[in-house]
Amino acid sequence: MTEDIVIGIDNGRPRKKRLLVVDDNKDFTEMAQHIFGAEFDVLSEDEGQPGLRKCLEWQPDVVLLDVNMPSMNGIEFLRLMSQDPALATIPVVVITASDFNGITESLARRYTNMSAFITKLSPPEVVREKILKAMVK
Fold first, then answer.
1. Count H helices, E strands: the chain?
2. Domain spanning 3-135: CATH superfamily
3. Could you tell me which residues come within 8 angstroms of residue 53 by beta carbon, excluding any fewer than 6 positions away?
4. Quick one: which of 42, 73, 80, 94 is 20 to 30 A from 105 by CA?
C-alpha cells in the first residue's frame, strides 16, 4: 500500500481511502471495484436511498455517483446529502452515460460537495484523477 492511499488508522492499522459507488448499472459497479479495489476500499449501492444510508454508516472519503437511477436520481441524492450535516462535506464525483450535458451539470453544481462531472466514457485514469482531486478539496 502506498502512502498516498492511506488515510488513517482503524484499530491500530492503516486504512485505505473509502470509495462509495452509487450506480444502478451492475457492470459499472463491478468494473469500478475491479479498477479501484486495490487502491481504495470500495463499496457500492444500486439505488439512492440505500446509498445515503451507506454514506451515513460508512462515511466514505468520496462518492462516485450516477445521475440516472430508478427511485432517486443523482441530483436528488446530492440535494439530500447537502441537507444532512453528517454528509454535506463528503465530496461527490458525478458520472453519467446518458445525461452528460450542461443542464444536468448546472443542476449538480448547485451543491457544494459536487467535485466533478464526468462521462462514463472517461478513461479510468481520468476517473481516478477526479476521485483523488475530490479527496483533497
1. 5, 7
2. Response regulator (3.40.50.2300)
3. none
4. 42
| Residue 1 confidence (pLDDT) above 70 | no
Model pLDDT for residues 90-113, shown as the tens digit of each residue: 999 999 887 677 777 788 888 888
* Mode of pairing for the β-strands spanning 18-22 and 62-66: parallel
| CA nearest neighbour of 19 among 50, 45, 40, 35 | 40
Cell numbers given for 69: 437511477
Whether the predicted pLDDT of 62 surpasses 60:
yes
- Grid coordinates standing for 118? 464526468
Sign of the dihedral defined by the CA atoms of residues 99, 84, 36, 23, in that order: negative
Per-residue cell: 105: 451539470
